[in-house]
Amino acid sequence: MSKIKNAFGPGKAFVAFLTCGDPDLDTTEKLVLSLAAHADVIELGIPFSDPTAEGPTIQGANLRALSGGVTTDQIFELVRRIRKQTAVPLAFMTYANVVFSYGTERFIKTAAQAGMDGLILPDVPFEEKEEFAPVCRAYGLDFISLIAPTSRQRIARIAKEAEGFVYCVSSLGVTGVRSQITSDIGAMVRQVREVTDVPAAVGFGISTPAQAADMAAKADGVILGSAIVKLVERYGRDAVPHVAEFAQKIKDAVRSVS
Amino acid sequence: MLPAMSSMVSESLPDVRGHFGPYGGRFVPETLMHPLQELEAEYLRARQDPEFQRELAYYLKEFCGRPTPLYYAERLSRELGGARVYLKREDLLHTGAHKINNCIGQVLLARRMGKTRVIAETGAGQHGVATATVAAMFGLKCVVYMGAVDCERQALNVYRMKMLGAEVVAVKAGQQTLKEAINEAMRDWVTNVRNTHYILGTAYGAHPYPMMVRNFQRVIGDEARRQVLEKEGRLPDLLVACVGGGSNAIGLFHPFLDDAGVKMVGVEAGGEGIEPGKHAARFQGGSLGVLQGTRSYLLQDEWGQIQLTHSVSAGLDYAAVGPEHAWLRDQGRVEYTFATDAQALDAFQKLARLEGIIPALESAHAVAEVIRRAPTMAADQLIVVNLSGRGDKDVAQVAAKIGLHSQ
Questions:
Q1: Helices (H), B193-304
Q2: Position B129 pLDDT exceeds 60
Q3: Do B29 and A48 touch (CB under 8 A)?
Q4: Which of B33, B39, B191 to substitute to test the interface with A, most A CBs within 10 Å?
Q5: Suppose B150 and one of A122, B236, B253, B314 were both cysteines; which one would form an S-S bond, judging by CB atoms 3.0 to 4.6 Å apart?
Q6: The pLDDT value given to residue B6
């Protein structure tokens, strides 16, 4: 049974994202342990030099982490340390080339053994997933699929094979803060629910407790990345209490609609 | 497992999912999948539509100035003392490079799809200028992304784009060249995909771009084939073209792929030599990877992070190569080599002095290979080199490099 899917429980879930190594891996470790008290699932971003799905905030985090010399192997080490201290479900979020260049099976096997629960590759759509998803299944990782406002008739096909949760991209565009989310999230989520009992979580552009509550009411969970990364950018090694405070507010907002 | 190179192969690839053997594909965010499928469907419809073909032929002839000459470079041939060298004069096209062939095709598609805005990436600025040109011609909004370093070294083309009414966005991320410009163009497209068509300028990126751009550029090779048969009564022994993403090369090569006697060589940017960060020769220091929508050869480190590149030529200064080139290399059908900055600068000056033609620095890489090869060939052998663009944009940069002063 998927640990990630279970984490959605009967209530609404809060999925938090961090870029590993921003500003350094020690801080990432402290942030993950602190977030584990508030978030139901944590996405760990492995930085990539050319993150085309990211807006300026997470691009900046990728750049800071890479210029600090972070490598995939160091991030696996980080996960092993984290796993000794918390059971919170963890999913990697990175780009196809990071996995492919490591050796797809070697990457997925190492990730599973280190204690990861899922993998999200925003540049691997449904049509290319056969290279990754069966290997993930073999090692017990959820390969998490995304749907977008342009997906339309693709949604049923994607959701039918979804694992962990369905990542609903709230709006056109890249990751980052948006003042308004205008897509019909309710309709997207209904299409997902017609074909699967895998939960649907909404991400891209959610940055305030009010937005989180609004989106949680329409879906099974919300994903926050850029808003958290912004705090890390601002406070650096001192970000832990600020991120924890923010995460508590989001968690409260999400719980309020459960 | 892989079919032998035959008359079938050149026509049957890519497969329906955009793969050239192990290369190609569609590695993009889900948001772009439906738009890419729509684009592919519209392109395949247009290809069969006589009205689209008529329109395309009309603009290529009347607006761009096709056919371009296949010009016998007599003094260069004599000086090199070997094969007879023909120049395919894409530099004479409107806007000064082969890029316009593809832009005309894609802007006609954009109009069929009802898009009101076009965007593009550009390295040397030639594709940006061609996109700004077709946008002006059809009254579409146009935004061109260009690395800040390239904006500086190709300033003339920045002015041209602005005069044509395009907005030029100087991209400051990373090493501020072509790769970063493509990242930004992809981010714009994923945001504005409902009203915007992305006129990708090379035979790279997610399917159907490598196939579509190749097919819009193969007019170069179709013409060259006809022309050389007319002039010499036989096919050439060697085709030479520079390879950045690889659109001018694939355009020249493709119609000859089934002609076993025609050798082909693609010339990458050797920069300051084949050391990490000093060049852009993907087949020298690269390995298989996934970048910006497709799987091909990349310059990357052991963790899959994309490496810095360098070339004196902004149009070749890119970390990846079109997937079909990777496939053709595997088949042994096309040979890939490189020319260094110094060799390209030398070829640039040689062509100017001997033939009265100032080539683009990109095309000068191909000329450098001709300078190496022609003397080793017999006097009755023929080389066709793609002079993919003209060098006006490079004049200031080259003058500074070779210490030429205006006074």
A1: 209-217, 219-232, 247-253, 282-285
A2: yes
A3: no
A4: B33
A5: B314
A6: 42
Predicted confidence (pLDDT) at residue A45 exceeds the cutoff of 60: yes
A55 touches chain B (CB under 8 A): yes
Helix (H, G, I), strand (E, B) or coil at B32: helix
SS3 B325: helix
pLDDT at B184 over 90: yes
Confidence of residue B309 (pLDDT cuts 50, 70, 90): very high
Interface confidence (ipTM) of the complex? 0.96
Give the domains, in start order, of chain A with CATH numbers: 3-255 (3.20.20.70)
CA A168/CA A27 separation, integer angstroms = 29
Distance (Å) of CA B38 to CA A103, B27, B109, B227, B278: 33, 16, 11, 36, 39
End-to-end CA distance of chain A: 23
pTM of the model: 0.96
CA-CA-CA-CA torsion for B19, B20, B24, B30, nearest 10 degrees? -10
State mean pLDDT over A91-109: 98
Contacts of B289 in chain A (CB under 8 A): 97, 100-101
Q: What is the pLDDT of residue B10?
A: 59
Chain A residue numbers touching B194 (CB-CB < 8 A)? 172
Q: Which of B17, B169, B187 to mutate to test the interface with A (most CBs of A within 10 A)?
A: B187
| Residue, of A32 and B2, whose pLDDT is higher | A32
